[in-house]
């Protein structure tokens, strides 16, 4: 056992901390987690408070995993004593544009394929249930009762605490600068020295590109700087979780939002605004221009939520060409696993950690992850046409 560790995990964000916890549940593991910042920090992709969680998805590749996703969170809540999942119900709305209607139909198809119930709603019913909405008569909707939010920052804290309690070693402020992959072991280089183990998990989100050459990977990883904005309002009480659900409005540009949670404000964002960057160009402060666009959506559709900006926050989407997850072991190196979340993995964090742990402790997983293989065309075909707009 080189260096005394069975496993090294690079990255202690939502996925890395979850992987560390689930690895610690296998007897005989000795796990080291390397994190470039402090633990449970606000500079990674899980630094904000809330993430949408739902069964409703654009593809059965994801919906097939959602029952196990909810089960994983229930387990972590029970073990940690922290409430992580808040059910608010989930509302998907669609404009009359054909692409938007097709997106909502894909959601219905994925739910039906898994036998998960939902309700179809017309504009009148949407306005009756949630009078906060100002929508045109041709807007249609779908409601799924299990939709809600995950407290993503608390989830990192919970996984980190549980992993520590089960003997995992965390080294914060320890950046992985390189990796050496051998046939039966790995060594990770850091400014604090080299660390070796039998197996490796790389869960570094948008920083993966820096380690790709050492891992033998060369697929295109596109980064987009995204923003969420929080708006305060004199009518915040109309948007509490017991009165207002998480929502996604499918249109020419998809928008999504949250009830009041974690901050005294309503949270809203556009999905995939497409501000493409390199890894070293990221910023951690949002901008007023994007906030103004989001305010325009609120003025049109949720006027009661309009008020001064409380906060603008950023994150970076790390996207393969099809904007699907990567959950796999490296070809030719089954002792090395890699994860990419493509900007929509927060809700799956605990389950993805469990799957990555299974891949490296059992050699396989019973969960259906074939669609997220490193061997799929979006990864292996350099001519694959990027499709970053999920309409999810």
Q: What would your notes on this structure say?
A:
This protein has 392 residues and is an alpha+beta fold. The protein has 2 domains: 5-47 and 153-220 and 322-380, FAD/NAD(P)-binding domain (3-Layer(bba) Sandwich); 90-145 and 222-319, D-Amino Acid Oxidase, subunit A, domain 2 (D-Amino Acid Oxidase, Chain A, domain 2, 2-Layer Sandwich), CATH 3.30.9.10. The protein has helices spanning 14-24, 60-63, 66-80, 98-113, 123-129, 152-165, 212-215, 288-301, 349-361, 377-380, and strands spanning 5-10, 31-34, 50-53, 85-87, 90-94, 119-122, 140-144, 148-151, 169-171, 178-182, 185-190, 193-202, 222-231, 246-250, 255-258, 266-270, 276-277, 309-319, 326-330, 333-340. Strands 5, 6, 7, 13, 14, 15, 16, 17 and 18 form a 9-stranded mixed β-sheet that branches. A hairpin with a 4-residue loop joins strand 14 and strand 15 (255-258). The longest helix has 16 residues, at 98-113. It is globular, with a radius of gyration of 21 Å. The model has no long low-confidence stretch (mean pLDDT 94).
């Amino acid at each position: 056992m080189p260096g005394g560790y069975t496993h090294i995990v690079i990255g202690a964000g939502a996925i890395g901390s979850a992987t560390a916890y689930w690895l610690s549940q296998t007897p005989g593991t000795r796990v080291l987690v390397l994190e470039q910042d402090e633990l449970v920090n606000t500079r990674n992709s899980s630094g904000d408070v809330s993430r949408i969680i739902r069964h409703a998805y654009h593809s059965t590749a994801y919906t097939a995993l959602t029952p196990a996703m909810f089960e994983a969170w229930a387990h972590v809540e029970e073990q940690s004593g922290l409430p992580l999942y808040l059910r608010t119900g989930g509302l998907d709305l669609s404009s009359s544009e054909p692409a938007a209607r097709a997106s909502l139909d894909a959601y219905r198809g994925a739910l039906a394929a898994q036998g998960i119930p939902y309700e179809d709603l017309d504009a009148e019913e949407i306005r009756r249930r949630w009078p906060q909405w100002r929508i045109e008569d041709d807007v249609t909707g779908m409601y799924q009762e299990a939709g809600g939010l995950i407290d993503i920052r608390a989830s990192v804290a919970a996984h980190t605490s549980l992993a520590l309690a089960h003997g995992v070693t965390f080294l914060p402020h320890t950046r992985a600068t390189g990796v050496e992959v051998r046939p039966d072991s790995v060594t990770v280089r850091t400014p604090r020295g080299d660390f070796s183990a039998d197996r490796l998990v790389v869960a570094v989100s948008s920083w993966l590109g820096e380690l790709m050459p050492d891992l033998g990977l060369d697929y295109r990883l596109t980064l987009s700087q995204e923003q969420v904005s929080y708006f305060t309002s004199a009518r915040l009480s109309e948007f509490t979780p017991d009165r207002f659900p998480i929502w996604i409005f499918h249109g020419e540009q998809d928008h999504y939002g949250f009830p009041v949670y974690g901050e005294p404000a309503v949270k809203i964002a556009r999905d995939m605004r497409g501000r493409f960057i390199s890894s070293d160009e990221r910023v951690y402060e949002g901008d007023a221009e994007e906030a103004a666009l989001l305010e325009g959506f609120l003025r049109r559709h949720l006027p009661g939520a309009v008020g001064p900006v409380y906060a603008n926050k950023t994150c970076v989407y790390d996207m393969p060409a099809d904007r699907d997850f990567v959950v796999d072991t490296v070809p030719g190196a089954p002792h090395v696993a890699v994860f990419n979340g493509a900007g929509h993995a927060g809700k799956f964090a605990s389950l993805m950690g469990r799957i990555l742990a299974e891949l490296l402790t059992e050699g396989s997983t019973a969960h259906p992850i074939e669609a997220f293989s490193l061997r799929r065309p979006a990864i292996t075909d350099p001519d694959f046409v990027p499709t970053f707009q999920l309409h999810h």
